[in-house]
Amino acid sequence: MTTSIEVDLCVIGAGSGGLSVASGAAQLGLNTVLVERAAMGGDCLNTGCVPSKALLAAGKRAQMHRKDDIKGITPHEPEIDFSAIKDHVFDTIKTIEPNDSPERFRRLGVNVILEEGRFIAPNKLQAGDLVIKARHFVIATGSRAVLPPLIGLDKDKALTNETIFGLREKPNHLLIIGGGPIGIEMAQAHRRLGCKVSVFDRGSILPHDDQSNVEIIRQCLISEGVELHENVAVKEVKHTESGVSLVIEKVGKIEEFEGSHLLVAAGRAPNIDSLDLEKAGVRYDKKGITVDAHLKSSNKKVFAIGDVSGGPQFTHVAGYHAGIIIRQICFKMFWAKVDYKALPWVTYTDPELAQVGLTEKLARKQYGDEINVTEWHFNENDRAIAERTTKGQIRVITNKKGLILGASIVGPQAGELIGLWALAISSGLKIAAVTGMIAPYPTLGEISKRAAGAWYTVSLFSDKTRRIVGWLQKLPI
Question: For the packed helices 49-66 and 82-96, what is the interaxial angle rounded to 10 degrees?
């Protein structure tokens, strides 16, 4: 029997963005319904950020045993129980899971409906036997891994980020299609856990990051034994009784590589197929729901956030979107809109790779030669030297007047260090603000201050400055 309710807000999807909107709205007094067809926490908790970082942590811990860079400690090859490491991965998920549970959100005042939702009218959604009429809808259904149309590829035999964490047997040789963040993180993690790993990409790995910093990641991966096959075309996939093989073409030459398992990390698609968006009057395309800068769809009652909105696909973007939605729906701040100029992202390899704002390539495309690029290296950072983590550098992009346009870091804890530069860019700061900062010693964070100081080196120690100092010395005390 179908029943109907009327609410202020209906959120579809209990991933990071949807959970943030639902909890915020409910605690601010809105009658809020949250509809989720699968697991609470979405991709991030169950098949994305959390399990991948747990697996990376295991790989990093194993690699520490192999290092011989500190005298007095004998390196050795660690014993690795691959299945038990997956217990660590799922223990991590279960530890965080209560924060995203239906029980917690019901305590916060959210009406949680664990059913698939689909629109039946511009202001109505059906979830199971319940029809929800709402003043506002927020679609936060995220995205999913998609498989490319490769000859011979069997979707039931290929792994994606949604299935690889459930694999208990250690791959003897993991073949990975895709050299983006997911593919590269999984490549390093599995190599460190004792697997042979080969990565194949039609272009270069990590194409959206600063390429000077990517080169450092590339050499680290190669030194650890990851085989990188860049700028190749995968022509065919062959599934066999013993595993899988890839037929590739590079510079006109055909080669075949055999492996035990195949991971495909080469694209994602928005989760919109079952929503019946046409009945809601919501426009969309293959990238996702079409939204304006305020995250509003073609139906003024319907917003879309996170991956499904067709923008940058990061968990922290979904959280950022949630804040914009709360301001509009709860506080009637209809002018609130997205601004990605200070959007950071991180690839959690070892060393980490982090970026915010413009890379040098994008800055030169936008400003020509009217930019400055300042670098500082971790091998000149005292804390990094003490800990033997000196691979990496920071590169800061400014205009000629010192306005910070972007920053790229490759090195230890780059993801933590990039936050300073995100704040600087969002606040419209110039490089002098970072130069004037007092940084504790010895910390990795000093690298930011040293890079900022290097921006002034040429002008500070110029002949002109020397003359000015000389004149000042002639003044009476």
Answer: 140
